Amino acid sequence: MAKVGINTGTSANAGDGSTLRAGANIINNNFDELYTALGDGTTLAPGIVTSIVAGSNISVTGTGQVTISSGLWEKTDAGINTVSNVGIGTTNPRFTLEVGAVGASGTSLYVNGDARVTGILTVGSSSVTLNGSTNEITVGTGITISGNTGIISATQVNIAGETLTGAGVTSLVAGSNITLSGSTGQVTISSAGGTWANYDSNTGISTTKKVKIENDLEVTGVSTFSGIGTSGALDVDGHTELDDVNVSGVSTFAGAADFNGAIDVDGHTELDDVNVSGVSTFAGAADFNGAIDVDGHTELDDVNVSGVSTFAGAADFNGAIDVDGHTELDDVNVSGVSTFAGAADFKDDVNVSGVSTFAGAAEFNGARVYVKSIIDVDGHTELDDVNVSGASTFSGAADFNGALDVDGHTELDDVNVSGASTFTGAADFNGAIDVDGHTELDDLNVSGVATVSTLKVGTAATINSSGLDVVGIASVGVAITMYASSGIVSATTYYGDGSQLSGVVSGITVEDEGSALSTSATTLDFVGSGVVASGTGATKTITIAGGGSGITVEDEGSALSTLATTLDFVGSGVVASGTGATKTITISGGGGALASRTTKNATTASLAAAASGDLSITAFKSYNLLKIAIDHPAWVRLYVDAASRTSDASRAEGTDPTPGSGVIAEVLTTTAGASTFLMSPAVFGWNNDGTPATTVYAKVTNKEASTSRAITVTLTLIEAEA
Fold first, then answer.
1. From the centroid of its chain, how far is CA 64?
2. Domain containing residue 372
3. Shared domain check, 363 and 463
4. 263 alpha carbon, distance to own chain's centre
5. What are 619-670's pLDDT values in tens digits?
6. What is the DSSP letter of 604?
7. Which of 62, 88, 114 is the last residue of a domain?
8. Count of alpha carbons within 13 Å of 586, Cβ hemisphere only?
9. 3-state secondary structure string across 358-381
10. What is the Cα–Cα distance from 344 to 361, expressed in whole angstroms?
11. Burial annotation 364-402 (CB, 10 A radius, 16+ → b, else e)
12. Number of domains into which the chain is organized
C-alpha cells in the first residue's frame, strides 16, 4: 500500500484531526508494510539491498566489492591499493605510510618476520641513518661506520676515560706489543726490551699527564725536567741545575751543594757546614744546634735560641726579641717599646725611663722598679704587694682577682666584679651600679628611684616594661594567687564597684510567661505553703505543690483523656482574651468563612523576541486557578516546582507535556496587546517544594516578532490551603 499520513488537524487542539486510535492504526499499518518488505527485524529479506553508492567516489556492490575511486583506494586482482598517504594509528598521515600519531609513546610498529628497506633507513630526527647501498651507518655528524672498508670514523674517541683527538691518530694496535702509528709520530713498546721507541728526534716523547717509572731512569745526556717527583733515590753524577726542588723526605748531599737561587725548606733540615756568601732570609723558624759564625751584618726578625747565646759585643735589636727560656741581661738599653710575651724575672733594680709594655706576665722577685713615667699594662698583672704613695688612676678596667685592701678614700667610677664581693660595712653608691650576673641583697634600702628593665622573681613571674608575666602560679602573700594557665586571680577580698570586671553577675533576670520584668533581682523570696525552694549549687529548684497538674479540655462536652498545661489557639478567626484565672476563647464566623478569589502577578525582565525567562509569582501553597492574563503576546507555562520547569525547558511549542511532568497549565498567543485565558474548568495548582511555599514557578517566552519587552503575568485564583 502507499504511505498513509496522520491528520494533525487545522491547528493545535482544534479537534478536527485524526483520533488517537485512528492515528495509532495508521502507524501500525506503515510499520507492517516495512517489516514485510525488509524482514522480521532480525534477518533482512534477501534481494532488498543490491548496491550502496556513497557520493561519486565510494560504491558497494552486491558481490561484496568496495570501490573507492578518484585517486583514492582501489581494489584490483593484486588487492587494495592507493596512491595517497596511508595512516595507521593516525587520521592525518603526512607520508606515504605513517604508523602512530605524532608524539605517540610505546611501540607503534612491530614486525614479527624479516623486514627489508631498499632505501636509507633513518632512526630519530635525522640522527641515525643506515644506508644499504653504501653499507654505511651514520650517527649524527660525528661517527661513520663503513662496512666496506671496516673503518670507524669519529671526531673524538674516549678509551677508559682517556680521549684521543685529532686527525694524527689513524691507528691503534693493542696486542702483546703496543704500537701507536701515524703520519706524524709512532710509539712502540716491544716485548724484547720493554723500552720506548720514538720516531720524532725533535720533540721526543711528551705528555700532559704524570709519568710513573717503577725502575731506574738512566739519562746519559743533558735533560731538562720542568717538574719531577721521585719517591726513590735520585743519583746525579754530573752537573745538575734545579730551579725548583720539592723534597718530601730526607736529602743527603755528600759533596758541596751550591744554591745560587732560593731554597724553600718546609720540613726539618740538618746542615753541618753552611757557607753563605750573600744574604739569607729565613721566613720561618731556623734551628741551629751548632755554632753560627756571622762575620758581617746580620738581621734576624725572629730568633729562637734554646741554649746559651753570648754576645761579646753590643747587640742591637731593632725588631722584636722573643726569649722563651732563661735570659740574663747585664745591661739592657731599651729606647723603644719592650714586649714580654712570657715571664720576665727581674732580680735587680729595673729603671724604666720610657714606655714598657708587658704582653705576658712580668715577675719582679725582690727587684725594685722605678717608673718615672706611665705604666701601661694591657694584659694580666699580678701585684703581691703594691705601695702607692700618691694617687693612682685606672683609666681602663682594673681586674682584681684577689683581695683588695683600701684603707683610705677610694673613688671607683666603673667597677666590674666577676666574683663575689663582700662589704662588711656600709657601701655608699652615689652613681650607677651595673650588675650583669647574680646578686644577693639581704637588705636593700633605696631612698630614690630605682629603675629595673627586667625583674625576675624565681621561675614564676617576670616584671618588665610590658607588665607582669606569670609563667606558673605566683602568690602575693597568703591572700592573692595568680594562675597563668587559667587566667584566674584569687583573692580574699575585692574592693571597688566592679565596673571593670567581666563575667560578674549583677542580678537575676525574672520573667513572667516569657516576658522579663523591668528590673533585675538580687534576691528571690518564694512564699506560700505549696512553694519549696531547694538546691546547693548555682541552679535552684522551685517546687509548687497543689493547684492541679493541668487543665481539663473537652470536645463537645467530652473530656480528653489527658490534662493540658498549655492551650495554643490558632487561626484567623480565633481570639483568646482574659487577665484573670478565667480565659475567653472567641471563634468568629460560626462554622467558618470561605476564601475569596484574588489576583497575584509578577513581571519578567526584558526579553528579546522569541527569548524565554524564568518567573516566580508569590501566591498560595495550593490554589484553584481561574484565569491567566498577559499584557503582551507570550507563551506562559506554570509548574509545581523549579525542577519541573528545568526539565520541561526543551519541549517545543504545540507538543503536549508528558503526564506527571509537573506542568499545571500553559497558554500561548501571538495576538498583539493584552490577552486573558479562562481556565474552564478551573485548574487546581500546588507547590511541590520540600517545605511547601507560596511560590508559583513559571516560564515566559516573548512571542513578539521583533520587539524586546518585559511581560506581566496576572493569575486569578482562590486559596485552597492555609
1. 66
2. 339-376
3. no
4. 60
5. 999 999 999 999 999 999 999 999 999 999 999 999 999 999 999 999 999 9
6. P
7. 88
8. 5
9. CCCCEECCCCCEEECCCCCCCCCC
10. 7
11. beeeeeeeeeeeeeeeeeeeeeeeeeeeeeeeeeeeeee
12. 5
